[in-house]
Amino acid sequence: MSRAFVKDDDGGQGAEDLPDRLISEHRNLVTAEGLAQIEDEIGRLQAHYAEAQSSADRIALQKIARDLRYWTARRSSAEVQEVAVKDGTVHFGSKVTILRADGRKQTYRIVGEDEANPAKGTISYVSPLAQALLGRKVGDEAQAGASTAEIEKIV
Predict the structure, then answer these.
(1) CB atoms within 10 A of CB 43
(2) 3 belongs to a structural domain
(3) Per-residue pLDDT tens over the stretch 101-129
(4) C-alpha span between 60 and 52 (Å, rounded)
(5) Domain assignment of residue 6, yes or no
C-alpha cells in the first residue's frame, strides 16, 4: 500500500528518521576555541533533547538527535591544533590581513570547518582562499577569487 493512503499519527510530519548531516572528508582540525564551541553545542543540544523528551515532541527529538550525532562525531574526530609558531608564515590558526586588488582590506583567521564564518572574520582551512594563503609570508601574493591579494600582516 502506498504511503499516500496511510494515516500518519504525527500530524503528517512523518516519523522516519532524518538522514544524518554530512561529515566532511577532510581532517577535523580545530582551534582550542573551536573545540569549546563543539562542546557548548553538544551541551545545548542535550538540554533541548531533554526538553523535547519531556514534551514528547517526536519531530524535535529527531532533529536534535541528528544534530547530536553530528556534533558528537565531530568532537570525537577533532584534532586540536597548537597555536601556530610566529615565524612570519601563514599557518592554521593565523590571523591574516590581505589587500585585495580593488583596494579592500580584509582580515581572516584560518580555522576548522565547523568554526568558519567569513562574515565574522574566520575562514575554513580547506577554503580556496585559506589554501592560497597557507605557507605564504607578508608581501606575497595569493589568489583571492578572480584576482590576487597581497598579504599585509600575519598574527
Answers:
(1) 11
(2) no
(3) 999 999 999 999 999 999 999 999 999 99
(4) 6
(5) no
